[in-house]
Amino acid sequence: MFTANVPATETTSGIARVAAAFARAKSAGRGAFIPYVCAGDPDRTTSAAILAALGPAGADIIELGIPYGDPLADGPTIAAAAQRAIDGSMTFEGALALAAQAQRDGAPPILMFTYYNPVLQYGLERFAADLAESGICGAIVPDVPLEESDELRAAFARWNLALPLLIAPTTPAARAEAIAAASSGFIYIVSRLGVTSAAKEPDFAWIAARVEALRKVTLTPLAVGFGISRAAHVRRTTEIADAAIVGSALIDSYSGVTGTEAVARVQAFLAGLQT
User: Fold this and answer.
1) What does the domain layout of the chain look like in residue ranges?
2) Superfamily (CATH) of domain 14-273
3) Strand, coil or helix: what is 206?
4) pLDDT tens digits, residue range 130-154?
5) Which residues are the active-site residues?
6) 8 A C-beta contact, residue 193 and residue 200
7) Of 17, 33, 72, 147, which has the fewest CB atoms closer than 10 Å, so is most exposed?
């Protein structure tokens, strides 16, 4: 069983650590960089090594996916990564343990990326407590609608955890404001319609308009994901918003290799993104 053993305090709470990461990036005159990887992909040992490499390679915050067999928001790259992890016996608790060890080893703030059904089965309060007590900073649960998020948000608030909510291109303005008000840590702006993928271009005109509107109603940092796959995307995104999230393209960069070769490819890919 997963056992948390690093107590959270007010000064080391998930929300505080995420806020500090954004503040450090801002003070350096740049946007924050948030890579996504899937726990256990391509295998447990390589996954741990990749997590250890992300901070030195420029990550300010890390999204760590918990592999799930019905990933509604994930495109083919991330779905395949999740399946590889499941085939390698990675579990919900195993993913939390992987993140907890990375946090103990000094990784940037980690937010788990998962879906509501496995969280519900695990237990909302148990999930929040295990995250906080292990030093994990929060989670992103993309399929929980605002109207059904009260219990999860309350559990996370009790433990001072970040819970970013998603705003899509189809989200009406009034609803986007409500989602922004309910988000903690940052607000996740989905760059375009569809699932995650490096193959489709972000809609920067829409992103700019949405960011401009949200800046008028919230001080919470704004991060943009889905389709951010090249250095030009990262530059444009961080000119508009507070952070760029990169997932599918990063996973593609080390597809088919393991061990030190996978880590080297991650390092090279992230160096290229931040030029």
Assistant:
1) 14-273
2) Aldolase class I (3.20.20.70)
3) helix
4) 999 999 999 999 999 999 999 999 9
5) 63, 74
6) no
7) 147
